[in-house]
Amino acid sequence: MAEIGQTLREARIRARIDISEIEAKTKIRARYLRALENEEWGLLPGPTYTKSFLRTYAEALGLDGRALVEEYKARFERGEEREYRHPPIRRRHREREPLPRGYLLGGALLLLVALLAVVGSLHPSSQSARRSHRSATAPRPLSRPLTAVTTATTTTAAADLTVALKPTARVWVCLVSEGRKLIPGVILLPEEGQQGRLFRGRAFEVNLGNSHVELTVDGRPVDVPPSPEPIGYAIEGSGIHPLPPGKRPTC
Questions:
Q1: Do 203 and 167 touch, CB atoms closer than 8 A?
Q2: Which residues have C-beta within 8 Å of that of residue 82, sequence separation ≥ 6?
Q3: Are 235 and 204 a contacting pair, CB within 8 Å?
Q4: Which of 49, 111, 123, 197 is an S-S bond match for 45, by CB 3.0 to 4.6 Å?
């Protein structure tokens, strides 16, 4: 079986393409492309980016990117990094056992007590006692007008943010809000109709494989600086803050 890096290098040489041309076409830095050809996986930013770069580089050379990614996963990816699949749950059918006689007697007793309580509630003297109790314990009216409560509720609801993502080229995206993976670390392409995806929440964390995306918060565009490197942001009510590599979500 041919090595992954050797397959990439030979395909590039046969096509008479320089590394710099591939870098301009795929937006992947030349040092990462050389690391793929030399199978120097430790020089790459991580398994997720490695698989994304490998697929993009292979497809740019006309190779089967999916097959090379599967070969990488089988040969180099550690067991804990592979996708964990739960085994199917086998349900055992148990035969129904008859209820003990004590349970039946207890249930009949509870039913009798409930029936007596209903009959007692229908008696006129019982209804008068309940009305007197409700009158004595009725809550006092609120000192604040109802409009103040309505305003406070409206202010709390308005704390939610809206985030829209629109890919302009091939870009890997991980979007998390309050522990929920809204975009679980996938590659978005504009020609696949994945444009203008709108999300709502109180706070977000986003990790982008590059800058090929239009990011909008509450209808206002965010200035994403051009970069072939991964970019991360924390989006919350206080504003939008860049995230260092160690703080970005990984999905």
A1: no
A2: 73
A3: yes
A4: 49
Q: How far apart are the first and last CA of the chain?
A: 32
| Residue 234, phi then psi, degrees to nearest 5 | -110, 125
Q: Can you give the three-state secondary structure of the chain, one letter per residue?
A: CCCHHHHHHHHHHHCCCCHHHHHHHHCCCHHHHHHHHCCCHHHCCCHHHHHHHHHHHHHHCCCCHHHHHHHHHHHCCCHHHCCCCCCCCCCCCCCCCCCCHHHHHHHHHHHHHHHHHHHHHCCHHHHHHHHHHHHHCCCCCCCCCHHHHHHHHHHHHCCCEEEEEEECCCEEEEEEECCEEEEEEEEECHHHCCCCEEEEECCEEEEECCCCEEEEECCEEECCCCCCCCEEEEEECCEEEECCHHHCCCC
Angle between helix axes 4-14 and 47-60 (nearest 10 degrees) is 30
> 225, 226, 203, 211: which is closest to 165 by C-alpha?
211
Which pTM does this prediction carry?
Answer: 0.39
Structure tokens belonging to residue 6: 């050797």
How many whole angstroms separate alpha carbon 5 and alpha carbon 43? 14
Phi then psi for residue 116, to 5 deg, are -65, -35
Taking the C-alpha atoms of residue 44 and residue 89, their distance in angstroms, rounded to an integer, is 38
How far is it, in rounded angstroms, from Cα 204 to Cα 186? 17
pLDDT tens sequence across 167-190: 989 989 999 999 899 999 899 888
